[in-house]
Amino acid sequence: MGLRMMIVEDNFLTREMFKDMLDILGHQVVAEAEDLAGALAAYQKYKPDGLTIDLSLPKEDGLTILKALCKADPKVRAIIVSGNSQARIREQALQAGAMELLPKPIELDSLREVLGKVFPNENHV
């Protein structure tokens, strides 16, 4: 079996699309969250191999959630997802602890490429 992934995303349809794409790539979504409290609880409970975090969320932004997760587990392997792929945003995400930035709209090939960078020893069908 592939990676055990967690999705932090407030949009239901985007979460479902992510689940479908990760499934196609041979990975399993073990947890979902929409905010900081949910992300921390789900991460502690399910201990996923990696996660995706949307940058723009209604309560807390993705960087705040990422920083909290990195504080809880310095080995967290997170990918920030953003419609804004400017160099400044990418730099902020990496400084906050992200392994990579995945641009929106999300495409299967770009997801495969980013997963390959973050998890080079895994097969991403």
Summarize the structure in words.
This protein is an alpha/beta fold and 125 residues long. It has 5 helices and 5 strands, in the order E-H-E-H-E-H-E-H-E-H. The protein has helices at 12-24, 36-46, 62-72, 87-96, 108-118, and strands spanning 4-8, 28-33, 50-54, 78-82, 100-103. It has a 5-stranded parallel β-sheet, sandwiched between helices. Strand 1 (4-8), helix 1 (12-24) and strand 2 form a beta-alpha-beta unit. The model has no long low-confidence stretch (mean pLDDT 94).
Radius of gyration: 13 Å
* The number of domains: 1
Q: Write down the oligomeric state.
A: single chain
Query: Which structural class best describes the helix and strand composition?
Result: alpha/beta
Strand-and-helix sequence, N→C?
EHEHEHEHEH
| Mean pLDDT level | 94
Strand order within the widest beta sheet: 2-1-3-4-5
Approximate helicity band: 40-55%
CATH architecture, by name, is 3-Layer(aba) Sandwich
**Poorly predicted ranges:** none
Strand content: 15-25%
Tell me the major beta sheet.
5 strands, parallel
State the name of the first-level CATH class. Answer: Alpha Beta
**Helical segment count:** 5
Question: How many strands appear in the DSSP assignment?
Answer: 5
CATH topology term: Rossmann fold
Nutshell version of this structure?
The chain has 125 residues and is α/β, with parallel strands linked by helices. The protein contains 5 helices and 5 strands. A 5-stranded parallel sheet has the order 2-1-3-4-5, sandwiched between helices.
